[in-house]
Design goal:
Shape: elongated
Structural class: mainly beta
Oligomer: single chain
Distance between the termini: 15 Å
Number of helices: 0
Radius of gyration: 8 Å
Strand content: 25-35%
């Protein structure tokens, strides 16, 4: 899944279990 990293301003493609830190 690709999500926008507001912290770095870049788009990162990560696994579902890896992007849980965004919440």
């Amino acid at each position: 899944m690709c999500v926008d990293d507001l912290c770095s301003g870049a788009q990162q493609c990560v696994e579902d279990l890896d992007f849980t830190w965004l919440y």
